Amino acid sequence: MSRGYGEPVPTRPALILFDVNETLSDMAPLAGRFEDVGAPGGLARTWFASVLRDGVALTAAGASARFAEVADGCLRVALHGVALDRPLDEAVEHVLAGFAELHVHPDVAEGLEALAGLGIRLVTLSNGAASVAEALLGRAGARAHVEACLSVEDAEAAGPWKPAAEAYARALRRCGVRPEEAMLVAVHPWDVDGAARAGLRTAWIDRDGSPYPRHAAEAELTASSLVDLARRLR
Amino acid sequence: MSRGYGEPVPTRPALILFDVNETLSDMAPLAGRFEDVGAPGGLARTWFASVLRDGVALTAAGASARFAEVADGCLRVALHGVALDRPLDEAVEHVLAGFAELHVHPDVAEGLEALAGLGIRLVTLSNGAASVAEALLGRAGARAHVEACLSVEDAEAAGPWKPAAEAYARALRRCGVRPEEAMLVAVHPWDVDGAARAGLRTAWIDRDGSPYPRHAAEAELTASSLVDLARRLR
To answer: Do A211 and B77 make contact, defined as CB atoms within 8 angstroms?
Structure first.
């Protein structure tokens, strides 16, 4: 799956679409937000998987909702039965406010700078709000490397979530780039899979040596960080 | 959302489609399977949410995979980094074998008998293999109340997963029933949502007083058990 020493260097994509949550941001601190309100920290991962499950389910059913709405709804379900230390609404607000304080992984600022230095256009594409990516990159001092922060939702409508082909296609139309000229970069195999099926090139970021599931379409490239990705595309 | 005392009794559907995992089966013992192999029991919920997320993501991307394949792939990801007490393949096998030993919730056998007694045709429709539902109902002595155990997958192909409209439509075509004559019964709001959008009537089973998320289409009926559902449809 990954290209090692001595293998041909892939041609550079004209544009990279970055996933945001977990791919750029380190979501580990959200576990602390759950603990703050009296819930087990491990519930953070269950909750986030359920947000993606429900959001993508709406897309599969031909509907859609905004990320913030699904995150709120799934959080109330996840916290049901937990002995919280404060009223439910306050607990929900405290956990969700954690999104606004997340930071990028240690490799992100250097990796974005290196990729931008290769002349590749860099854009983010999230199922969440564009403002979250804007603020995240701003805190990292890396906003200038990124041409635009896009979302599957906009002011008018929620829109289909990734990995529906239309989610990638809409973003690429806005950038004026054909699918085969673009590369989706994500830590989530389901996102890599959807982008590959939509005709994009793909790179999977595997920071911790996790296995890649066989049910997802393989990534063209596997890299251990954004810095490693820039090295492979040099 | 639910109909209380004094409200009109809904007409009976000709056929009920039951979701299987968690709706009929009590999946709580799977947490013990995780603990058996040295993993936190809470990881069972995270893993199951990730299986649905990845399976539905494939459907949203226009692809599909069998439940067993997605369950295996997501389990290897979930167990990554866990200090297991046995080799990974054996741990995966031990957890997945737990599906074959699950039992129905305490209300299921009586509820199915009561619903069958009302002259309603009863069918299961799972994103998982039909054989799992067959065996589950067999262990409960309730197989005779159910006309057929259907799955979105068959011998030839994996097929689109619920909540895609086509998953419900295929099952109803096999039963010779129109959507408006059928009722989907599930504990999962995303399943209720998809069925409602596909034109079916819906009932949400809420055994533990969980909140219903606002991002999902409301259920026509909410019942606390299958016995309660039979009472409402009497």
So the answer is: yes
Task: Report the half-sphere exposure of B34 (CA within 13 A, side-chain side).
Answer: 21
Q: Which CATH class is domain A15-26+103-232?
A: alpha beta
CA nearest neighbour of B225 among B65, B125, B114, B102: B114
Terminal CA-to-CA distance of chain A, rounded, Å? 19
Which pLDDT score, from 0 to 100, does residue A157 have?
Answer: 87
Neighboring chain A residues of B45 at a CB cutoff of 8 Å? 46
Cα gap B130→B18, rounded to integer Å:
12
Q: How distant is the Cα of A141 from the closest Cα of chain B, in angstroms? A: 31
Mutate to test the interface with B, among A46, A50, A89, A215 (most CBs of B within 10 A): A215
Q: Which of B69, B80, B214 lies at the smallest CB-CB distance from A69?
A: B214
User: Would you say residue B9 has pLDDT above 80?
Assistant: no
What pLDDT digit, counting tens, does each position of B104-129 carry? Answer: 999 999 999 999 999 999 999 999 99
Phi, psi of A70 (to 5 degrees): -70, -40
Q: If you classify domain B29-100 with CATH, what class do you get?
A: mainly alpha
Q: Is the pLDDT assigned to residue B1 strictly greater than 60?
A: no
Domain ranges for chain B, please list them.
15-25+103-233, 29-100
Give this prediction's pTM.
0.95
The ipTM assigned to this model is 0.94
B61/A161 CB distance under 8 A: no
Fold of B15-25+103-233: Rossmann fold (3.40.50)
